[in-house]
Specification:
Number of strands: 11
Strand content: 25-35%
Helix content: 40-55%
Structural class: alpha+beta
CATH architecture of the largest domain: 2-Layer Sandwich
CATH topology of the largest domain: Alpha-D-Glucose-1,6-Bisphosphate, Chain A, domain 4
Largest sheet: 9 strands, antiparallel
Number of domains: 2
CATH class of the largest domain: Alpha Beta
């Protein structure tokens, strides 16, 4: 679940995920800091009371309030904050974890924030929550590697065929078509034409539909999976291919 609301230039965002066990405030704090570092490949780090990109202080927090089931950081400034105020909170119940940003005033103008920072924030938050959910149990019967290869071959053939109707510069057009096609199909329902033929679809590890940014990330990481010969793109994007 994701909710975004605005009030006088301040934004509030909520997202949640189901979990199998109660998490403590301390574990949420520590796992969030570790996830930020891992997901950004070390480019972003939560150090002390600041979120940093190298020497740049992106967000500066006040002293966090830590309870048995939650951690709450008051936002006091930083390059991404337009003014002090607002809170970043992670809270847990026995079966859910909720991440909420409340009354935050971004430094960027609202249209630019919506196109950039908001999507990055939502993607990192979603990936963090999906990591808390975990990959087990799987959200369905996992598709076989052979069926995944067959679906990929069908989709590749379709993209090449569509590009062939576009005339010159076939490789460039094929790439554009492949990106739009896969992101649209995965975000809309998780099923490409290849998935329809082979009876499989892509979903998040919690069983929910992929977001567009999650789909873009999964597609961008696909070459790494080919090199490593394991589904790195699914591991990082928090996705799974199921047979249905």
């Amino acid at each position: 679940m994701r909710v975004v609301s605005w009030d006088g230039g301040r934004v509030s965002i909520k997202a949640s995920v189901a979990v199998s066990a109660q998490l403590s405030g301390a574990s949420l704090r520590d796992s969030y800091a570790e996830s930020i570092r891992r997901l950004s490949l070390g480019l972003l780090q939560l150090r002390g009371d600041t979120l940093r990109a190298g020497p740049l202080v992106l967000l500066r927090f006040g002293r966090p309030t830590l309870t048995r089931s939650a951690v709450d950081w008051p936002i006091e400034g930083g390059l991404l904050a337009g003014a002090p105020g607002g809170h970043w909170r992670l809270g847990a119940t026995p079966d859910h974890v909720e991440a909420s940003l409340s009354d935050y005033r971004p430094a960027l103008p609202r249209p630019l924030y919506v196109l950039t920072h908001l999507h990055v924030h939502q993607l990192f938050t979603r990936l963090f929550l999906l990591r808390l959910h975990g990959r087990e149990p799987a959200p369905g019967t996992v598709a076989s590697a052979e069926d995944r290869r067959r679906a990929g071959a069908v989709d590749a053939a379709l993209c090449f065929t569509l590009a062939g109707f576009a005339g010159q510069r076939r490789l460039r057009r094929t790439l554009v078509i492949a990106i739009v096609y896969h992101v649209a199909c995965w975000s809309a329902g998780g099923r490409t034409f290849g998935g329809l033929v082979t009876g499989q679809r892509v979903i998040s590890v919690d069983g929910s539909r992929l977001t567009p940014t999650q789909s873009v990330l999964r597609l961008a990481l696909l070459p790494l999976s080919w090199i490593a010969r394991r589904p790195i793109h699914d591991e990082i994007a928090g996705t799974e291919v199921i047979a249905d």
